[in-house]
Amino acid sequence: MDQEQAQPTRREFLSMVGAVGGAALMYQAMAMMGVAKASSYNGPIQLGQAPEGTKVLILGAGLAGMVAAMELRDVGYEVEVLEYREKAGGRCWTLRSGDTYEELGGAVQQIDFAEGNYFNPGPWRIPYNHYGVLDYCARLAVELEPFIQINNNAYLHSASAFDGRPIRYREINTDYRGHIAELLSKVTDQGALDEVMTDEDKERLLTSLRSFGALNSDNEYVASGSASARRGYERYPGGGVDGAPIPNDPMDLSTVLESGLWRSLASAESLNTSMPMFQPRGGMDMIARAMEENLNGLIRYNKKVTSILQDDDGVTVTFEDGENGGASGTATADYCVCTIPFSILGQIEHNFSSSLSSVISTMHYASSVKVGLEFNRRFWEEDEHIFGGITYTDLPISMISYPSNDYFQKKPGVLLGAYSWGATSYQFSSLPHEERVAKALEYGAQIHPQYNEEFKTGVSVAWHRVPWVLGCYGLWQDKEAQYQDAVAMDRRVVMAGEHLSYLPAWMEGAILSSLDAITRLHDVATNN
Amino acid sequence: MKRFLIAAAAVAAITPFAVTQESAEREIVEYDEFFASSSVLTQQTGAGIYGAVCAACHMSNGEGAVGAGAYPALAENPNLEFPEYAIYLTIHGQAAMPPLGGILSDEQIAAVIEYIRTSFGNDYPDPVTAEMVEITR
């Protein structure tokens, strides 16, 4: 009692911090106390006024470039954005019916989805703790809806377990937890923990394990009402004469372990993948579209940058102008924010410092492939009661993700039918589009036989074949050693994008990188 | 295998991309070795390895590709004269190209570089060996 009075309560402490240090310090204090963990996003950026008549050229109209453009414009910089493509968004990209996508090598896909259906080849979900993305969605009125990351009724699947039959996530999860809880109970009872635990803590542990693992009063994991309430029943609870439920039998521990299906049980535990997650209603590029609209004419399209040169007076960028028959054009500015992926930038003439050049020329880009499959009927909902979420498999497709929108609709639906990395992804990328789709169908049909009957159309995006990025995301040769060289402002130019963050491949990484880059650019501009 | 034939036929019938069912079945044989492992490539011939990894960026006939940036053509490429260069960058990567030393064995790297050096208009017939790859790792 005395002690409590001597020290301020958490609430008193935080009130004091807020009164003395204001909102930013308050936020930091709370973050340190674990109240508001996560992204370093600290609310809308406060740059202060731009020096009069200062122009910034922004290369690339992905999220990093558009965030830089919006914020710099808002404080009075003259802003010009050059974009290689005919539209903005970069990897924040959605394919819909009527869209055409030509990959490197010339293969063209005409997207033929049903009205309203779409496929996100790049980012497809937003963690609740990516405060930067979420704040821009709020400020730009981008409507968000829940994205289902984890679904106990989806499957875990291995070609070499249970004769290739998919098992409901809830069964593996419940049985795994039940058995480890029983084992730990046993060793506790047998005295194995006597030296490290008090009798009181042992009793508390046993109580918690009964709850954690759905054990019976003898600390056993066996067929029971409590186990079946989690893993499912032989006969489900109903009404009337046969209303009484009949529990089913758990799998034994050896079967669960041997199956390897436990490998996916932590897939929704990390900060980046835990519920709740979100998606923009109508496709991920609703974010890009909102930013593009906000920039209202500041983006110049079809400009392929060929050189970036800076001197004491400013920055000169040369480009091939696709809107003018490929004629050479130039743009000049006092400063430049360059969001061009290093896979491309390494091929562009520049006079950056040797330390930055070295990072640019040693960053390689990851291989990744996604296949979207549209089916005439939402059989995963109608037949299997799976509403959103992800089935994980050790087949080359690695997962099937069910749409988190348009539930119960009697219309076609689009699944993420393959999402592959590494050795598997190289091979998917090497296949012609129609073979990628055929493979995704072949493998997926092992989990959902309805594939063969219901397939409507498919889309595939192999990121190494995407003409404007040449890969999925940047991978460092030696991030620890190179990072500061790459993020440092290089005289009049500063780099930004997901590759310059510790949230690589996430939109939040691109936004945080951009906000940090323009903060430092503004410092240089105002102190010059 | 049977299952795949059915799926491939279904695609051929429905998608506008597959040319004919006949050609889809012919391609199945070629792609049958794909995806035997989730972590490494299992193709052993130079042509097989090329078609499963290199073709992703350098394209089926080594022609390369040009977008905002380019993938260099391997066809008629004078940089292939000295195999050590190709060996080094296959193992360790170069610029945007990822290192492939982790998914290909010494023998596979030797085989695929030998294949590239004698295909697509390149004529460098001297052999490339696994020993040459090993000392470069």
Describe what you observe in this structure.
- Chain B: InterPro entries: Cyt_c-like_dom, Cyt_c-like_dom_sf, Cyt_C_IC, Cytochrome_c-type_DH.
- Chain B: GO terms for molecular function: electron transfer activity; heme binding; iron ion binding.
- Chain B: It holds the Pfam family Cytochrome_CBB3.
- Chain A is of the alpha/beta class and 528 residues long.
- Chain A has 3 domains: 55-86 and 301-362 and 476-527, FAD/NAD(P)-binding domain (3-Layer(bba) Sandwich), CATH 3.50.50; 95-150 and 274-284 and 367-465, Polyamine Oxidase, Chain A, domain 2 (Alpha-Beta Complex), CATH 3.90.660; 168-252, de novo design (two linked rop proteins) (Up-down Bundle), CATH 1.20.1440.240.
- In chain A, the strands form 9 sheets. A 5-stranded parallel beta sheet of chain A has the order 14-2-1-18-27, covered by helices on one side. In chain A, strands 10-9-22-23 form a 4-stranded mixed beta sheet.
- In chain A, helix 3 packs parallel to helix 9, helix 3 (63-74) packs parallel to helix 17 and helix 11 (354-360) crosses helix 16 (479-487).
- Chain A starts with a helix and ends with a helix.
- Chain B is mainly α.
- Chain B folds into 2 domains: 1-32; 40-134, Cytochrome Bc1 Complex, Chain D, domain 2.
- Chain B is built from 6 helices and 2 strands.
- Chain B has helices spanning 2-14, 21-31, 46-58, 83-92, 106-117, 130-134, and strands at 65-66, 70-71.
- A two-stranded antiparallel ribbon of chain B has the order 1-2.
- In chain B, helix 1 (2-14) packs across helix 2, helix 3 crosses helix 5 (106-117) and helix 4 crosses helix 5 (106-117).
- The N and C termini of chain B lie far apart (37 Å).
- Residues 1-29 of chain B have low confidence and may be disordered.
- At the A-B interface, helix 10, strand 20, helix 13, helix 14 and strand 25 of A face helix 1, helix 2, helix 3, strand 1 and strand 2 of B.
